[in-house]
Amino acid sequence: MSDTRIPDYLFEHEGKKYHYEDVIGSFKSAGLKKGDRVFVHSDLKTFGKINPQITKEAYTGTFIDALKDVVGDKGTIIMPVFSYSFCRGQDYDPDNTPSSVGILTERFRRMDGVTRTAEPIFSVAIWGQDKDLYKDIGCDCFGEGSIFHKIYLDDFKILFIGGTFDITYMHFVEQAHNVPYRYIKRFKGRMLINGESKECAFDYNVRFQDSDVHYDLEKISDFLECNGVLEKVRLGYSQIRVVGAKDAYRAISGGFKENIRVLLKDYGKEMYSMLKRLFPLCRSITGNGVRESLRILQEYIPLRTYEVPTGTGAFDWVVPKEWNIKDAYVMDENDVRVIDFKKNNLHIMGYSVAVDKMLTLPELQGHLFSFPDRPEAIPYVTSYYKERWGFCVSEDVRRNLKDGIYRIFIDSELKEGSLTYGELIIPGESAKEVFISAYICHPSLANDGLSGVVVAAYLARWIMSRPRRYTYRIIFIPETIGSIVYLSRNLEVMQKNVIAGFNISCVGDNGRYSYVPTRKGDTYADRVALNILSFKHPDFIRYSFLDRGSDERQYNAPGVDLPVCCLLRSKYGVYPGYHTSLDNLDFVTAEGLSGSYEVLRECLKLIEENRRYKINCLGEPQLGRRGLYPTISKKYSADKVKKMMDFIAYADGVNDIIDISNKTNIPIWELYSVIEKLTESGLITAV
Length: 687
Description:
This protein is an alpha+beta fold and 687 residues long.
């Protein structure tokens, strides 16, 4: 025990004072017990207002004493006392080099009975009767023979005291799986060994310097919790968390199979950068802006492009002439461009014909478009199927135009050309298809159009990175005419094979999630979307099919009847900046894109994993003899396996896992590990 005792209390939060016994109780509630081997991460500043009468030594010593009391004399405690000495070009002395990772670890290192490893980067301090078993380690920081390898072999409990979930152990799992964003780098330096300074070399699996590799630690905590392997207990303002080393290894390994970047922060920044690159291009339903946008997409995914000639019939429609534009402006009598296409491509009405003439202000006004209710915004206006010309301006600019003669210049071309679209078919084990559609015809509008394009592209990359049960049909098309043209060329095979589809639009902002159902409202796509949204974002807005407005109109048209719904953030036609210059790069965010990506990825994963399962015995199975149920029956002993028992109760070969998730109120991602355990034990079979 520490020789410093605590006067009255440790810390307080919301009027409650927390004592030594509370710390012990939280450790035990999180699953620690006598004889445990524990690896400790700590952040002691987050529990509440620390008693001002307590010294740092007393405060940190109390947590150490509490942990010793819980694991007892036969337990083992290891704390990181990382120094990163060789990384910093410094010599390393195991006895004197201080810890760089917190006051608790440094206090622990200096305690009697504690030994330290001779590891100049990721050294640890060890207490307990078995401390000598862990003192000798190899020269690979996260490889075989490392302290993290030994932690795995002896299945330590990894304890997180406080708010920060800084799980260094994950780098051991990453190295074991040869993740592509890290590589082995050798660090050399001098280390004091038995009083003698010797040159040594250690291998460290480091991040690539020029890559955007950042860990989302709370996301990792949530991931482990969703996999059912992390215990979490509140203590004051913060928490105590515990995960078994082997459980964490299995869970992260499973995550790597789905997404090798599962531990990293999301792709939001990458998607935003891609969107930012596409944003300035002047796109329309035909033309070089679409071609250039698709060419950029081909740098990310192996997209195939198609050209459909002007005049081609598509159901009740005909492919229009191709439109391209080089420049357009309105110039006043002082040769000042008061309206300039090159400053914002929304200034030109889409499909404007070529013009070079002089007009008075009253004559010009008949060709100007603005929104009086949004005076600062430039509207987005088009005229695809009737030849005319026009300019779009903010109401503020329009009101300030002075009487006079203006030069009107539009350097555009309408010609016999073609409509261009992109398609990516990703084959799976089955010919049955999942369909994803995004439109690529809008000019500089970030949320309406481009957000769906970049999210669809990154979903395609994820799909290609993993084994697939189904084939995926992903298209990038001009809205309305593009979907009609595509259906006219592919309807028969799509009606035969598509089991679910998603029209992706307006997914880049931070607004509430929205959902527009299929015309029937109860298709497979609807069931998947509603399940994922209900658990991930239960405050989502559920619209009617009567609120449709994008290409889901064509996919659900009578006689087409494809099961395609629409997932969005702030719905088209609803958010204030819709179809104006306010739908810009400031309106969309990396977080918005990432969140939408994750929701849609979960939908696709559910489609891949969804099956009907049947229990292979009559009555409830005996889980205990299979290691799935506590063999000592006491109060609350069944709580940890309740999800498993609830799943079994509905595993009748009729309910699929969406049904079971809905009936049991268990998120689908928490059922995946249950299914895996029951399948491995031979208790359930997919039917």
